[in-house]
Amino acid sequence: MKLGEKSASSVASLNRTPLLEKMLKAVPNFAAQQQKLNGQEPVIKNNPALGEYQLIDDLGGLMHGTYLQATNSESQDKDRSLVSRNSMSETASLVNYRAAADFSGYGHLKNNTETTKSVEVVYTLPTFEGKQGTAQIVLDGARINEFDGLEYKDEKGNVIPRFDITYSYQGHEGEYSTIDTLKQRDDFSWEKVTAIMVFGSLLPNSSYRVEFPFKITNLENINTQEQFNLNEYAFYDLTVNKHTTSQLNFRLSTPVFAHDAYQNIPFMALSRTEDGDEVFSEDVQAMMPTLGEVPYAISNFNDEVSFEIDEDNVMWQGGQYFFKLAAIQGAIQEKGFSVNVDKTGRKLMEASAFMVQPTYLDFESFDFIPYVVIHQLLITKSFTLKAEAKDDWNSFGGIEKVCGLSATNEELPVSPEQIFIVDDSELVDATPGDYNVIIGYFLNGSEDNDMLITSPAKVRMVENKQTINVYYVDLVNIPDKTKDDLQPSDGKILENQTQTFTGQGDEAYHNKLWGEENGFEIYEYDQGAKLGTYVGGQPAKDYYVYLIHKIEKIDEDHQVTRTITFNMPDGSK
Description:
By secondary structure, this protein is mostly beta strands. It has 5 helices and 40 strands.
């Protein structure tokens, strides 16, 4: 699998929500982890795909090449890079810019023949192709002999006098000056030396090296994906009139992430919206797998990686951490979620990746957490099912949202007809009550188990009946409001007169209202109190009838006979 074929994202810049703060507290402290890794990892990390340190042997026993060396300021261990090659497209080595002390490049010559060899070599330094405004690797004048400049030495450290060394200067590439002429320049600085030409002789069975003491400048503008070179631009074996070239590619970087330290840390689930990335709620985060549960591969050299081969478990800045999406899909697809699909839209994307931004980092304030973008495609809701329909129903009533994904992982509409019942086994012998079912669909119509998106739904099974309650309210005093605004609290409910009746769904009912034959007059009533249709499976429905006391009017000429009885003191009437 190659990096360019998969998605890779830098760490998201997110709003500091309480949930995000809680999640960040659970992950290892980034600065402390990085400091620990500085001491554990080599100060120069070599690309395992390129083999081991080996000088180039393409001139009949005259072996040569360039390489890097540094001391780890934390562990004090020395490490060196691989050697340059005739043709190199890969990155050979990473140099830890936060832990490299005594950082130097070398030109190595070794004569394995029985004949003295005369050579001419041009070494181009990293500044030869330096870009303005970015971090630079330049010669460190403080570590160079101010009188003699650079020197060739044998394996014992003795200076070899049989070599002439001249220097090319920034802005004057291709022109070479001696150390004396170079130092006469008004703008002289070792940092501006871009190339070195060497002419001399190697004795039979000898080994010589020239050291280029380096320092890193403008580090605040570093880009850990930018490549530097230490090359043999032209190498002539003058004895046999043959020439060759070699190239050494390397990057500045630093270790930032150890998989072992994050084994028990769950991936953070993000939703990608038009307004940027958002953190899903805590219940969604709870279903995410840990890094230790998901197959992974780390690429630090931007070349091919394999999930089957046990390679790096530490990611350096500028590298990428790949993880298989199928393992994450297995943890979320039964809750209505999906990871990204590939460019066909018919399969899951095989892997995704994250990286720490390759530019300058404030390690003390930087927060790091692994994440993955997921999509909530199926949302279900509770619904009601009539008992007699439990063997013949569809899932439409249980769907709140259903979407597909485009080849660019944008949400697409999906017809509800594509949804089907995955599991309704609880309903087989069910009586009225609450049950669980599972409904789902194949994402984008692909009948691949990884593309089966499901979600549980609550079903309330009910009988196909409904109860109607009719309440009578005695309005002792007619309230000062319109009839449409009447409320049961405007009077007193006559509890003993409540009417309750039950019927089958879809059947009509007619009710005789109480009150007119009992000294009341019906002032207002809900239409459903008198007539309507039962809605099977629905809760009982309440209706109200508002009553006032009936008053009989007496005619003005109506004769009234009145009898008056007096009680006398003697008892007579």
